[in-house]
């Protein structure tokens, strides 16, 4: 039978792809770690790592085991935290994935939640939607504010709580031809240079779908993960960008804000694994967000 300690050893090597660094992280001797990995491979009858003098590579079997190991170890940690939570009131830790553009908006809610539940630690990790969904399934995140759940996830693999809806708007340099317009059709963006968000971003998918629906072909001049980078490129006239209205209206480098017709929207949700019962800390957080929509909603 595989023990949790063996899975911890295996995960450390899989993350580091280096036995010496993994041993240092685990604070054990490197020969002992190598022995444990060989023992695990004998138990399972598979090779988990390909070793050479210069590198360590995880095998396909190892990658499959890593997915299970991440989930199992996350479940064990969740059990421990839940028991501590029940033993001493609502306490524990929440690893919360946050979509870029929502962190500042959630600050009020997080401050209010921390004031009411001081024994709950909330760790924020900014990711795109694709990364957050993978983190939820892999046990690396307890909950996440995802922009849009794929249909196969909604209600089956992930439970969710809507956090409102907000329009996406065009930002351009103040000297750009569209800068003086209050609203333009999406089709008017045909042929423009665009600063867009990196693959894996749900907002990127929303923007590209709206452009395709309107028959607008754009040139993606820049791919970025940061709104501030898109704004900087836009401000000097190198490209335009489509961003959430709240982001466009934040203080920063000067840009012109133009509404679009039809108006694309983003509708983030708080998501968590449907098949894993939330512990006291996460249960309290979900209930707090549900009971305080004025703090959580992107439309607030």
UniProtKB/TrEMBL annotation:
Tagged with keyword Isomerase: no
GO MF annotation terms: DNA binding; DNA-binding transcription factor activity
Domain HTH lysR-type: 2-59
Keyword Transcription regulation: yes
Pfam families assigned: HTH_1, LysR_substrate
Any one Gene Ontology cellular component term annotated for this protein: protein-DNA complex
Signal peptide: none
Keywords: DNA-binding, Transcription, Transcription regulation
Similarity section: Belongs to the LysR transcriptional regulatory family.
Protein name listed in UniProt: LysR family transcriptional regulator
Provenance organism: Actinomadura verrucosospora
